[in-house]
Amino acid sequence: MYKLFARPGWGSVLAEAQLAWYGLPFEVEDLGDLFTSEEARQRLATVNPLAQIPTLVLPDGRVMTESAAITLYLADVTGRHDLVPEARAPERPEFLRWLVFMVANIYPTFTYADLPERFVPGVDAQKAFRVNVDTYAQRLWAQMDGAAGQPWFLGARFSAIDIFIAAMTQWRPKRPWFAGACPRLHAIAEGVDALPPLAEVWRRNYPPE
């Protein structure tokens, strides 16, 4: 049994969706708001000193963190290639490039904008910083949209990148912005939304308003 420390709608959904896709046995320990709950941060810090999610405890008790690392690990441990192209697959270089692009460039912008006080002193400067970070993130998304294939990011080949797109387009600036500014990514996200193996994950993390 895998154990996933999670918060509905947060970055833990990236790992949760893959665990569900592979049909791996897992339990979810829902944490409180890590931004406001010291108790939640301390509970998570016992297994991950950075107190960040996703944090995945493997069946043997070892801890995995970092979304891209978890993605590659789960493909290795299941011996499957439906979410991660195998080493010699022609799509492998593009997959690795854009997977790391998302986690190394886009994902951190949420931390910067959500917690500007970590990086910039002064309320006014923090507000401006958040606006600048969100604008920069939109430029990164536009770059991805220009590289996206159809119906999936890698073209005919479905992958974990499509799961990441479906989850992360639910976050700021959210789906309506993507529909107008990044239509390829929006179409990919809607396609992933409709996949039955992930339906319960999306209901748990993004319940209808």
UniProtKB/TrEMBL annotation:
InterPro entries: Glutathione-S-Trfase_C-like (IPR010987), Glutathione-S-Trfase_C_sf (IPR036282), Glutathione_S-Trfase_N (IPR004045), Thioredoxin-like_sf (IPR036249)
Annotated ranges, domain GST N-terminal: 1-82
Domain GST C-terminal positions: 88-209
Superkingdom of this protein's organism: Bacteria
Pfam family, one: GST_N_2
Protein name: Glutathione S-transferase
